[in-house]
Amino acid sequence: MNEEPLAAQEGRKLYPYQQQAVDTIFNKILELPANANLLFQLPTGGGKTIIFSEIARRYIQHTGRKILILTHRIELSRQTGDVLAELGISNKIINSEVKTLPQQSNYQSFTALVETLNNRFQENDQFLEDIGLVIVDEAHNNSFRKIFQYFDNVNILGVTATPLSSNKKLPLYQTYADLMVGESIANLIQQGFLCEGVTYSYDVNLSSLRVGNNGEFTVGSHELLYTQAMMQSKLVDAYEEVAKGTKTLIFNAGILTSIAVCESFKKKGYPARHLDSTFSDRERAETLDWFRNTKDGILTSVSILTTGFDEPEVETIMLNRATKSLTLYHQMIGRGSRVLPNKKKFNIIDLGNNSRRFNLWQYPIDWKHVFASPHLYLEHRYKDEWDYELENDYEMPLEIRERFLNSSAESFVVRDRYMMCLRKGLKPQTVLDESLEDHFARIKDNASDFDEAFELFNLLQEEMKYRIKQFGKCINATNNHSDWQYQSYSSKLRRRLMNYFVE
Q1: How many domains does the chain fold into?
Q2: Which among 37, 76, 223, 424 is least buried, having the fewest CB atoms inside 10 angstroms?
Q3: Strand partners, 275
């Protein structure tokens, strides 16, 4: 079939980089032999749906065959259907209510949820007819592979923002023969197609987080850490410092954390709602409508809004969790990257050390390397820079150490003492009480009078500060709180020494 000019059925004008992507990918698809597959990468917000829908239109017009678009969320399926309708393509959404398709000649394309379509194919492996091209949205999700067995002599185009498989045992290069890389985040920002993300990182001690069998931090260990009053306070303080009054989306790892976050903001008088996967369709729609219509609304959720959700007015993304998934990191932040006439920047508030783990959101990534060597990224292990520091005590200079020869050389490691207190159910403050007793005993055993005791007290100042800093990281204390702890600690030790040597 002869293809008409692009503008003939164009529902919306493509940006130059989108036009170039359509031309390049479509020409590549025409060159592919049967059963050869192609993967396309483009950042969240770059318009992947618009690009692959235009490719679908061209393919239908050029070959006369039908296309199938696979998604894993109903919202994505509906959005895709809307774009296809704009392009004049007769599309059928295959949902749970569609059991048979007796009149397939009426349709040029089908969009389907992967699980629903898999069920139909298990009942009838000839459920769809004359499919020439399968387009897979969010192709990094490996749930789609189960569908591919039902298609022969068909090309597959996968699209994703992060070409890194969700399953390290099933790398994407086993499914797709080649990766085509679109515009980078930095370039899209420079050209004005994406907002600039300004990252504010708040250090959090993640040593209590545990990693599950899937290689990700567990929800349970997240809940224990992020529901603590100290972390809730840190979150609200960060919001007030950076993003007060902005439309804010908060991502959490667990439902309990999200509910606690919502209550913390409500207690401070901020308009906040919570949303999780247990909500009914009606409750979900009502909550999202509230968020869209509330200029300074705060919506706290459990990662269910990483895909299939588009609210361009979001001005702040808060990562109230840690993740080892590069894909999830980009999906969460991407929710705030949409451009509006009066919105050129958005805030990224990171309370999971994620930007240190993956670098800044807009930092260039060699996606070709990620695609070819996914194990280097999936098996990436990260330690907080202070974890090494917490495993050892302060390294005392030799000239100071020689002033404490009458004392035990046993190391006092704050993290070990802290973990022991947690296991015994003791208050964390016990750690500082024990530390103070250790310092008092060392000065007492090596000083003959108060003047010498005060001299030794001054020599231990750096070690005292070091231990207070360690303790502050264990409990996720603010700098102001740690400063107060140091002043209190120093005053108590000085009084102990005066009472012992003077009285």
Answers
A1: 3
A2: 424
A3: 301
Residues 399, 256, single domain; the answer is: no
Query: Is there a domain that residue 373 lies in?
Result: no
Residues 484 and 46: their CA atoms lie apart, in Å, by 48
Judged against a pLDDT cut of 70, whether residue 391 lies above it is answered with no
Handedness of CA 99, 105, 107, 111 (dihedral sign): positive
Number of H helices, E strands in the chain: 21, 13
pLDDT band, very low/low/confident/very high, at 409 (cuts 50, 70, 90): low
| Whether 224 and 178 share a structural domain | no
pLDDT tens per residue across span 109-165: 888 888 888 888 888 878 888 888 999 988 888 777 788 888 888 989 999 999 988
Q: Based on the fold, state whether residues 355 and 391 are members of the same structural domain.
A: no
Is 178 in the same domain as 198?
A: no
pLDDT at 5 over 70: no
**What separation in angstroms does the CA of 328 have from each of 218, 303, 334, 347, 354?**
14, 9, 10, 17, 11
d(CA 236, CA 226): 12
- Number of Cα atoms under 13 Å in the Cβ half of residue 128: 33
Domain of residue 406, residue span: 385-501
Q: How far apart are CA 129 and CA 314, in angstroms?
A: 42
